[in-house]
């Protein structure tokens, strides 16, 4: 494609195609029927073109104090139809949940009901400003308060902080509450225990809060080694940070024993709630002995997910940590209505304030619409179907691939690269070939406990038909690898708009500035 004209080639060299002309001769334009070659907007537009007519402002006095622009900005311009065509063509090159199954493990990339999008766009929610007087946003405060009540009841926890903006931010909230509780007790515990299969944000968050991290070993069945855990407990242990179901897709069956041991040693139990989609409506984390847990509302409770945002990470707290919840929170106002408790007064043990404002309104409305439309029974089915679909994929691929752990998985299933040994194909090549089959690749090389890991989470929103198609594609690719068809993997993806890239060179020598190519010959020439 022309967008990489200044960089490395992104198409498959003609010699590499093996002379395959089944698709017909190359086109003169670079287009292939409805798959159109689309350049950067800088390549197809011109600074001299604009879609609007602006009048000359005439003489005026600037307020920029000598910082006025002295040279043209150089922004390219297109007419309205060409702008629409450009971005429509780019959108057609994307893979998203609206085009197919998203098997990314540990991410819960599921369909988001359009009803929730419609609710979030209602003017009363979408057009409000965080600095409005509280009397003008009573509906928004009621949404926050009602959602908080749902989340506390789903987890059987005593309090909740709604302000964290995403999962890692929620982790930070929970660990800051734990640190505040320890300081209130007059203790300077500084060790946090983290399983080796944990999300990378867990140890990072602990270190950010001033703790030291010790790694917990796993047993051969992929779960926390309880004996090794108990051996590490001592007067310096502040907390354990554990994901349940864990990142290998397995339920920590000894979780209550783990919680009891940590509490007996004087520590707290933080649970990473990234995989709550497998438990919602079925298990209340508070019943398991958990002291703090964040939600990924953008995973479990409906938000467009990907591209780094948007997100929301409310954090629930047990009775032991509830007094240290950060401000602000919603409370009943004197004289009726709702208000935000936004300041920390003398005698209040809240650890402080995490953000300027109170969370993500668009995420709250979507999440509450999701919860209310499903109800208790529907949420239970969400968890049950997510686990059912993962087990269906596991059973379908058991003969073709190698599952890392034979225990029955929860919401996701982990495979490793043992089935590829001796084939000349690695996990990356296998994933690239899956793109040619019309699927987004699964999570690769994570968790690190599995060699060449392939982590698959189908979620509850996929039908049996779509799972069968995915399993068929994966099975056929595994058979091709074992049959020695290495060219299928070495050159993949062959049919994507962008072909196999030199990702190492791209990371080490990124092209950060657009440089216009040599001008095309004019038609009149």
How does this structure look, described?
GO terms for molecular function: glycine binding; glycine dehydrogenase (decarboxylating) activity; pyridoxal phosphate binding. Its EC number is 1.4.4.2. With 525 residues, the chain is α/β, with parallel strands linked by helices. The chain has 2 domains: 115-370, Aspartate Aminotransferase, domain 2, CATH 3.40.640; 383-502, Aspartate Aminotransferase, domain 1 (Alpha-Beta Complex), CATH 3.90.1150.10. It is 32% helix and 10% strand. It contains 15 helices and 13 strands. It has helices spanning 41-44, 80-91, 114-120, 123-126, 138-155, 167-184, 201-208, 226-232, 255-264, 297-300, 361-397, 427-436, 464-482, 487-490, 503-508; strands at residues 159-161, 191-195, 212-216, 237-243, 268-272, 292-294, 315-317, 329-332, 338-341, 402-403, 413-416, 443-444, 454-456. Strands 1-7-6-5-4-2-3 form a 7-stranded mixed beta sheet, with helices on both faces. The protein has a 4-stranded antiparallel beta sheet with strand order 10-11-13-12, covered by helices on one side. Strands 8-9 form a two-stranded antiparallel sheet. β4, α9 (255-264) and β5 (268-272) form a beta-alpha-beta unit. α3 runs antiparallel to α11 (361-397), α5 packs parallel to α11 and α6 (167-184) packs across α7 (201-208). The longest helix is centred in the last third of the chain and has 37 residues, at 361-397. The radius of gyration is 27 Å and the shape is globular. The protein starts with 40 loop residues before the first helix and ends in a 17-residue tail after the last helix. The model is unreliable at 1-22 (pLDDT under 50).
